[in-house]
Amino acid sequence: MAKILVTGGCGYIGSHTIVDLLANGFDVISIDNHARSSNYAIAAIEKITGTRIKNYEVDLKNFDDTLAVFQENPDIAGIIHFAAYKAVGESVEEPLFYYENNVTTLIYVLQELQKLKCQNFIFSSSCTVYGEADKLPISENSPIKPAESPYGNTKQIGEEILKDSCQINLDLKTIALRYFNPIGAHNSSHIGELPQGVPQNLVPYITQTAVGLREQLSVFGNDYDTKDGTCIRDYIHVTDVAKAHVCALNRLFKNQQSHNFEVFNIGTGKGSSVLEVIQSFERVSDQKLNYKIVDRRQGDVISAFADTTKANTILGWKSKYSLDNAILDAWNWEQKIRNK
Prior knowledge:
Elements: E1 3-7, H1 12-23, E2 27-31, H2 40-49, E3 54-56, H3 63-72, E4 76-81, H4 88-93, H5 95-113, E5 120-126, H6 150-168, E6 173-179, E7 181-183, H7 202-210, E8 217-220, E9 232-233, E10 235-237, H8 238-253, E11 261-266, E12 272-273, H9 274-285, E13 291-294, E14 303-304, H10 309-315, H11 323-339
Helix pairs in contact: 1-2, 1-8, 3-5, 5-6, 7-9, 7-11, 9-11
């Protein structure tokens, strides 16, 4: 079994990816200091898979502690790097905090990776690198626009660091997965999205409103040039996102890359508006949601959804679950954690 290090393994996408890695026969270790995650995840992963993994409660900004993990595990065969802060608004308010965490930690991990025999690396990137695209759907060849936030810029910088590193180190094999909008939860309801404080994303705000934790959902603008006037995004089930990492790992292990730095869009290829997401929730939950239309929010991209042709044909990955599937799993998860 190849040993895979997952940084940010107790986070939302990280924990779901670990479940899929274990199901596919990988040996997994995690690094997560719980700065933005809960320590429940390791026990929850064990409930789902029957396997308890080791998590190093290490801050990756601490070089010595990071080095110690690699020294203890010289047989690491691949790394999936999720560890990063991701709140757009917070990044605008505290840019240095975001650059220090998201960029420094990537550099430290890559420095240790390049000492290993196997240098396989998957980077958790984002569709934010595209900004407001000139053309839809968005392909991997779409231009990279100036970042709308320090968070988005850290993803652009991360990809540039990887690209530059791959040019001088041909042993380093990397894939950057540009996620669109992950939503949902594991169908067991043992793991799901658990934001700290007020949710920054639409779906957890919907479920928290429905469960009574939030008074009302604000829909920012209904006068955009879209089918119903609200913003459009490509919402993809987190379980589908997790599976993309296994496909990417297999591509690296089989030496199938056309270049040692590759990027793939991870989305459904279908755009859904804010109102369509609300309607999906009302459909699967059989209840009305308390929401209101308010003024537009500065900086919101109008429409973004993926061209997934490259991931479908080259990576051998395709999304499986519908919007309703994802919303129902998110709702079941929300009810479970609030009833504990």
